[in-house]
């Protein structure tokens, strides 16, 4: 797949509105260099910075990054502790720059298990950037797709219990609105690095119609060219939502 300049995009309405990324391969990237896994996570932060900045410049509306899954607690105590420290450091260091670039940060996931200091940092970073109108950056931390659906159903079940809603009034849109991603549209393009071809309990509901892009690159090697390659691939897909190709063709703006 060749690398393309962002200039190939001539109609921004065709761009994916919501891109989600499973950032995988930090550990293997480090180990292939004879280094500790943490070296890979630190290099992964640089890839996050490059990707956020490229997505913002391209005018992508929403970027959701899978930073820490509900299952990642199973890693060694040392790796979990160092990852948490890295999140605190990165948040503290990068939030001003994100704010300056009008990025709106939202952490999605069950953050109640994080340290108080990390929870405070998250809350103040979200508050600082809440009114920004640029890229919406969702960082999924202690996130699981099944957990997200469960917490949405618990909120709706409690509305039913209180008689605010009847079971018959439940709709897909009401479930979507209660997910942690209720503030953004569903995913258009899901990217996973490192050659693994799994969704790994990432946004299960929200990827219903997403195009799934898998690349062999390890996450620390991911950069602007990797993102534009993925977008170029996406633009060449025929997205049909169960319609025929002719129906979709009829919706496209006439080529000049
Ligand atoms: C997966 O690689 C990566 C993670 C579990 C952590 C991702 C974290 C970062 C990129 C750093 C900080 C991010 C933010 C948003 C501040 P892996 O360890 O599973 O790699 P492996 O499959 O090669 O072992």
From TrEMBL:
Top-level taxon of the source organism: Bacteria
Coiled coil: none
Database matches in InterPro entries: UPP_synth-like, UPP_synth-like_CS, UPP_synth-like_sf
Necessary cofactors: Mg(2+)
Any one Gene Ontology molecular-function term assigned to this protein's record: magnesium ion binding
Binding site for substrate: 25-29, 37, 41, 69-71, 73, 75, 192, 198-200
Active site positions, chain numbering: 24, 72 (proton acceptor)
Cofactor comment: Binds 2 magnesium ions per subunit.
Keywords (A to Z) from UniProt: Cell shape, Cell wall biogenesis/degradation, Magnesium, Metal-binding, Peptidoglycan synthesis, Transferase
GO process annotations (BP): cell wall organization; peptidoglycan biosynthetic process; polyprenol biosynthetic process; regulation of cell shape
Any single Pfam family the record assigns to this protein: Prenyltransf
Residues binding Mg(2+): 24, 211
UniProt GO cellular component terms: cytosol
EC number(s) from the headed UniProt entry: 2.5.1.31
Enzyme class: transferase
Known catalytic reactions: 8 isopentenyl diphosphate + (2E,6E)-farnesyl diphosphate = di-trans,octa-cis-undecaprenyl diphosphate + 8 diphosphate
PANTHER family: DEHYDRODOLICHYL DIPHOSPHATE SYNTHASE 2, DEHYDRODOLICHYL DIPHOSPHATE SYNTHASE FAMILY MEMBER
HAMAP family: ISPT
Family stated for the protein in its record: Belongs to the UPP synthase family.
Its biological purpose: Catalyzes the sequential condensation of isopentenyl diphosphate (IPP) with (2E,6E)-farnesyl diphosphate (E,E-FPP) to yield (2Z,6Z,10Z,14Z,18Z,22Z,26Z,30Z,34E,38E)-undecaprenyl diphosphate (di-trans,octa-cis-UPP). UPP is the precursor of glycosyl carrier lipid in the biosynthesis of bacterial cell wall polysaccharide components such as peptidoglycan and lipopolysaccharide.
Subunit structure: Homodimer.
UniProt name for this protein: Ditrans,polycis-undecaprenyl-diphosphate synthase ((2E,6E)-farnesyl-diphosphate specific)
Species: Candidatus Enterovibrio altilux
Lineage: Bacteria, Pseudomonadati, Pseudomonadota, Gammaproteobacteria, Vibrionales
């Amino acid at each position: 797949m060749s690398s393309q300049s962002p200039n190939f995009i001539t109609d921004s309405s065709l761009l994916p509105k919501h891109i989600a990324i499973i950032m995988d391969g930090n550990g293997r990237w480090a180990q292939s260099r004879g280094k500790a896994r943490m070296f890979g996570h630190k290099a992964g932060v640089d890839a996050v910075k490059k990707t956020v900045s490229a997505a913002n410049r391209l005018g992508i509306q929403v970027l959701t990054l899978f930073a820490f899954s509900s299952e990642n607690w199973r890693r060694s105590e040392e790796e979990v502790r160092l990852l948490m420290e890295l999140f605190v450091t990165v948040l503290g260091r990068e939030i001003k720059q994100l704010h300056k670039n009008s990025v709106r940060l939202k952490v999605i996931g069950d953050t109640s298990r994080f340290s108080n200091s990390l929870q405070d940092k998250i809350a103040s970073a979200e508050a600082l950037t809440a009114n920004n109108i640029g890229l919406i950056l969702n960082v999924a931390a202690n996130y699981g797709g099944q957990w997200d659906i469960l917490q949405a159903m618990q909120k709706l079940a409690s509305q039913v219990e209180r008689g605010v809603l009847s079971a018959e009034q439940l709709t897909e849109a009401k479930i979507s609105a209660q997910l942690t991603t209720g503030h953004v549209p569903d995913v258009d393009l899901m990217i996973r690095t490192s050659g693994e071809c799994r969704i790994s309990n990432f946004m299960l509901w929200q990827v219903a119609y997403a195009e799934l892009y898998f690349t062999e690159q390890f996450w620390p090697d991911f950069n602007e060219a990797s993102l534009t390659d993925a977008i170029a691939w996406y633009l060449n897909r025929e997205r049909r939502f169960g319609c025929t190709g002719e129906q979709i063709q009829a919706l496209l703006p006439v080529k000049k």
